[in-house]
Design goal:
0% strand; mainly alpha; 7 helices
């Protein structure tokens, strides 16, 4: 239960920081995280029966999030979108591993699906808070 409270608190901090101080990319990534979280909550199998097989709908949400993060990364001149894309890729790979290794321990699969969301949110907070500082470092076009 505490894990859920921490996650939602961190997500709210990300949203606040992104919309208070972040740029368009950071706000977009924060909204992607919010939408993915809401969709995952609705689509995940109840815990008692969950994680016994691939969470197909959650995997599709995670793939969509990966594509959205990569889309931000290829257009951005900042480094953080590469990090969040790479971390999201590890989440997608957890689904692939479950497909390739169905005997994977259920708890390990559940943990692999959730673990990287915390560092992604932390990176987004730092990215939002550094947006103003980053803007002053851009080279001037002469």
């Amino acid at each position: 239960m505490i894990r859920i409270v921490i996650y939602w608190a961190l997500l709210l901090i990300v949203l606040f920081a992104a919309f208070r101080q972040g740029d368009r990319e950071t706000r977009g990534a924060a909204l992607i995280c919010l939408c993915a979280t809401l969709l995952s909550v609705v689509l995940v199998t109840p815990y008692a029966a969950g994680f016994k097989q691939v969470e197909t709908w959650v995997a599709l949400v995670d793939i969509g999030v990966l594509l959205a993060f990569v889309s931000i990364a290829v257009r951005s001149d900042r480094f953080w979108p590469l990090w969040v894309s790479g971390l999201q890729l590890t989440t997608v790979l957890a689904h692939a591993l479950r497909i390739l290794q169905p005997q994977l321990v259920d708890l390990a699969y559940a943990a692999a699906m959730r673990f990287w969301s915390y560092p992604i949110l932390l990176i987004l907070v730092v990215a939002a808070l550094r947006t103003g500082r980053y803007g002053t470092l851009r080279p001037s076009s002469s």
